[in-house]
Design brief:
With 94 residues, the chain is mainly α. It has three helices and no strands. Helix 1 (24-47) runs antiparallel to helix 3.
Length: 94
């Protein structure tokens, strides 16, 4: 992202959330990103239940942990992209 950083004497832009006032499509992107991050957390939590450990192999648990990590990263990337677009639009309207 090309936004100013605190090292340049500017405040770091805050991440967009689904409740930040912005264009509807950017708000929806932020919401999807948040959902991906939340779902990844739910998956990791579920993998810690005894029944899961009994029913899945180690390789399957590893694959699901990898999927959860990938979903968390993807969710963060979606939020970052929506945030960048939001800040560009705000700067363009000033």
């Amino acid at each position: 992202m090309t936004d100013p950083t605190p090292a340049n004497g500017h405040q770091e832009p805050t991440l967009l959330t689904s409740t930040t006032p912005t264009a509807a499509h950017l708000s929806r992107l932020a919401q999807i990103g948040e959902q991906l991050v939340n779902l990844s957390g739910e998956l990791v939590e579920l993998l810690h239940h005894d029944g899961i450990a009994h029913d899945l192999t180690g390789a399957e648990v590893d694959a699901l942990l990898n999927a959860a990590s990938t979903a968390r990263t993807a969710g963060g990337d979606v939020v970052l992209a929506a945030t960048a677009a939001h800040h560009r639009a705000r700067r363009a309207s000033i």
